[in-house]
């Protein structure tokens, strides 16, 4: 599920990576392949909602998105196989599962007005923006701040005002605690 509409993708599961891409010619040529290391993946089942059925979230530190299978059985098999590969990989490597994942973006079609102020209606001039921290669809004034999210980019990214306030407070508190613990006598 892309932010604008559902798009078909072909997935390939290996014991340490998940690869997905666009189908180009009769399912024989693949373009724009994306590789996801399985040690970063967390799966979350989605409830069926109208025409969107048999879905689950694939969450990683840098990108998260919804996937929908043709049948309930296919969904269960994919989730079971991916989870088994993740468990085996983490057990063999001794690593811990990543806990901080990128937000799943709310599809554009689900927001006719800004999800932050509930006032600004989206038009050709008043564009939709996605908060990179929570995934909400917001207007320009409600997302005019940027914050560095190290798992997603080395540059500061667009975030909504709510997330900016939360992230700023957490950063200030962390800096304050670091300053206290680094003073002599502590």
Automatic annotation (TrEMBL):
Q: Where is the FYVE-type domain?
A: 108-168
Q: Does the keyword Nucleotide-binding apply?
A: no
Keywords attached to this Swiss-Prot or TrEMBL record, sorted alphabetically, are: Metal-binding, Zinc, Zinc-finger
Pfam annotation, one family: FYVE
Any one Gene Ontology molecular-function term assigned to this protein's record? zinc ion binding
Q: Which residues form a coiled coil?
A: none
Q: Which stretches make up the PH domain? A: 1-87
Cross-referenced CDD domains: FYVE_PKHF, PH_Phafin2-like
In its keyword annotation, does this UniProt entry include Manganese?
A: no
Can you name this protein?
Pleckstrin homology domain-containing family F member 2
| Organism of this sequence | Ranatra chinensis
